[in-house]
Amino acid sequence: MSKDLLGRHREVLPDWLALYYDEPIEITHGEGRYVWDAEGRKYLDFFGGILTTMTAHALPEVAKAVSEQAGRIVHSSTLYLNRPMVDLAERVAQLSGIPDARVFFTTSGTEANDTALLLATTYRRSNTVLAMRNSYHGRSFSTVGITGNRGWSPTSLSPLQTLYVHGGARGRGPFAGLGDEEFIAACVADLRDLLGHTRPPAALIAEPVQGVGGFTAPPDGLYAAFREVLRERGILWIADEVQTGWGRTGEHFWGWQAHGRSGPPDIVTFAKGIGNGMSIGGVIARAEIMNCLDANSISTFGGTQITMAAGLANLTYLLEHDLQGNARRVGGLLIERLRAVGAQVPAVREVRGRGLMIGVELARPGTAEADPEAAAAVLEAARAGGLLIGKGGGHDTSALRIAPPMSLTVAEAEEGAAILEDALRSIR
């Protein structure tokens, strides 16, 4: 059945639509932290549909909210008042940390970042944008143009002039050998120098933890230091929280809070986990920024009632069950377990991360050279053992990406770590 589906897939879908595994699988259903494929095989899910199944598969509270809303009305567009949209916007604004916040809902993280770029460039009357090396912000024309990761940027054409800043990846690049304070100082000096050679930018967009880039992050406080430089010049700070938001990193509800010394971002984008699989993205910004557009704008599907009902139920469950605290506790145990394994496997260059957002970077033993073949082999071996994980990294990294639903139990973390240990030890 899966081979037949794979053939049909290849006949009608783009060649560049990547599939995991030498023999791709069809996931047919899930429950909690587990999923099953079309052949009935059960897997522990440590990737959650690319960090999207945030709480649990088939969470009853979300399923009930979606079913009940579908029985009333599914959609009406933003041209009409929408109670679920207002309810969720109020909660998100209150949680954002941004004063006088306004919220606009989209259908994806890509569209959310598109909207943030539209707001920033309009507000600042500039089409110059600062972005981080090794970054990823989506697959639309504007967001691939600012993505600092060649593997995910198929064109150099862009409506924006993009300038790339050092600092997003702590363990790579010209400043990697410095201590944290020296690293931040060097990156700030680089930013100041860059700003001396360009027209005034609209904004800096940055992921607090780079997702597709392999779950890399700078030392705490880097973006706070950047913020001070940006504020001197009126440049906005956009925090791309599509993968880091909603408490996944454990220590903070938003990734930017690790860099919050200089205050919150001007704009925050979000998506993925808030819908627990339903298509929700969005932008949070100060009212003066959100309201700067001088032309009509609506969203046909952003904020539709059925997705808002799912988002409300999912956010309520996350907060009432303290899944941020669970991510901190269980994620901390999982990271330490994987670090102990990595210390015994020569191909493991680094185990990094926070909460339930963990990267295992692989390199050719005795070098810092990326080993994509090893990453692919571990992905296959983990799947054979009953564990689904992801992978990522820039041009010089091969990272395994581990981001299970945030309700992961200690027993499930140990189960996944044991499978991954076997997979890592199988590298030849």
Fold and architecture overview:
The chain is of the alpha/beta class and 428 residues long. Helix content is 37%, strand content 17%. It has 13 helices and 15 strands. It has helices spanning 2-12, 48-51, 60-70, 83-96, 109-124, 141-146, 180-195, 222-233, 287-290, 305-320, 323-342, 372-384, 410-425; strands spanning 27-31, 34-37, 42-45, 101-106, 128-132, 161-165, 203-206, 236-240, 267-270, 281-286, 348-354, 357-362, 387-388, 390-392, 398-402. The strands form three sheets. It has a seven-stranded mixed β-sheet, with helices on both faces. It has a four-stranded mixed β-sheet with strand order 1-2-3-13. Strand 2 and strand 3 (42-45) form a beta hairpin. Helix 4 (83-96) packs across helix 10 (305-320), helix 11 (323-342) packs parallel to helix 13 and helix 12 crosses helix 13. The longest helix has 20 residues, at 323-342. It is globular and about 55 Å long. It starts with a helix and ends with a helix. The relative contact order is 0.16. The mean pLDDT is 96.
